[in-house]
Amino acid sequence: MTWAILGAGALGSVIGAELFNSGADIVLLDTNEAHLKAIQSEGLRVDWDDRTDHLPIRAMRPENAPELELVILLTKTMRSQAALSSIAPKIAAGACVLTLQNGLGNVERICGLVPETQILYGCTMTPGDLRGPGHVVSHGIAYTPFSPLTENPIAGRISEKLTAAGFEKTSNAAAKIWEKASFNCAMNATAVLGEGTVGQIADFVGSDLARKIAFEVLEVAAAEGIATNRTAVVEQIDLALEHHVAHKPSMLQDIEGGRRTEIESLNGYAAERGATLGVPVPLNTLLASLVRMKEQQRLI
């Protein structure tokens, strides 16, 4: 049966391409008309490390989607409700939804729109950059842990298929989501405020301060009852600062493009939950406030 990528930007297109190459019946759903038209006329171009593919993947607006078995949700977090509402009949017919979106609070955002038995959640370390309409670049699919929200036959069947496709079912997807979010909280907001690449974060922010930002987020996770791996986060931060020096974090790309950022699902979420749970997060609170200021200036 058909699987859909809902939110086929850079990351969504890359994951769709990997699943298509594995033999899955994939459709890309998005509202970016230029991107859709390019894929429809020329196929999806994907520049991998060792080759370039031109893939004849179906691409269309969400309201034109066929019947679906699974929807992999990869829209920006602030667009979750609108995106899922656009395919509401497919969800009502039984389609499961796997959110691999960035940030925190994604399951809570979709629970009112998708039955709990049809929800799966996780994150992905897969890289992806959009070079132009119908054209993405990636090193290939990377670690993508997930869990069903509830154990049931429907989610179990989907989990088996996802595992066969290279995803990893785990009992601690929530911890992996918080670990990735803590890394993004350290990288994205600092990139926006400094208007720089990861290499410039390394030069002017440094590993120690980046760790302090991330550790505040992990303290909130602990207060939520979620045990995380600080060593893994430190390794991820140090790897990025040393080897991904030319990368421009997505939040900075959004600001430069005059788009809303995902600050409310990253530093803003950590600040809000920290205040509720009595966990001090002064660095994240300050970063969230300053990014909101920058965002408002760029959107006016």
Descriptive overview:
The structure is a single chain. With 300 residues, this protein is α/β, with parallel strands linked by helices. It folds into two domains: 3-169, Rossmann fold; 173-299, N-(1-d-carboxylethyl)-l-norvaline Dehydrogenase, domain 2, CATH 1.10.1040. It is 49% helix and 15% strand. It has helices spanning 10-21, 33-42, 80-85, 88-92, 106-110, 153-164, 173-194, 198-204, 206-223, 230-243, 250-256, 267-277, 282-299, and strands at residues 3-6, 26-29, 44-47, 52-55, 58-60, 70-73, 96-99, 119-122, 129-132, 135-137, 145-148, 168-169. Strands 5-2-1-6-7-8-11-12 form an eight-stranded mixed sheet. It has a four-stranded mixed sheet with strand order 4-3-10-9. A hairpin with a 2-residue loop joins strand 9 and strand 10 (135-137). The termini are far apart. Residues 3-148 form the Ketopantoate reductase N-terminal domain.
Briefly summarize what is shown.
This protein is an alpha/beta fold.
CATH fold topology of the largest domain: Rossmann fold
Query: Order of helices and strands, N to C?
Result: EHEHEEEEHHEHEEEEHEHHHHHHH
Architecture of the largest domain in CATH?
Answer: 3-Layer(aba) Sandwich
Question: Strands of the biggest beta sheet: in what spatial order?
Answer: 5-2-1-6-7-8-11-12
Would you identify the CATH H-level superfamily of the largest domain? NAD(P)-binding Rossmann-like Domain
The domain tally reads 2
- In whole angstroms, the N-to-C terminal distance is 44 Å
CATH level-1 class of the largest domain: Alpha Beta
- Proportion of residues in β-strands: 5-15%
Which consecutive residue ranges, at least 5 long each, have pLDDT under 50? none
Radius of gyration: 19 Å
Domain Ketopantoate reductase C-terminal: 174-295
Keywords: NADP, Oxidoreductase, Pantothenate biosynthesis
Organism: Roseibium aggregatum (strain ATCC 25650 / DSM 13394 / JCM 20685 / NBRC 16684 / NCIMB 2208 / IAM 12614 / B1) (Stappia aggregata)
Domain Ketopantoate reductase N-terminal: 3-148
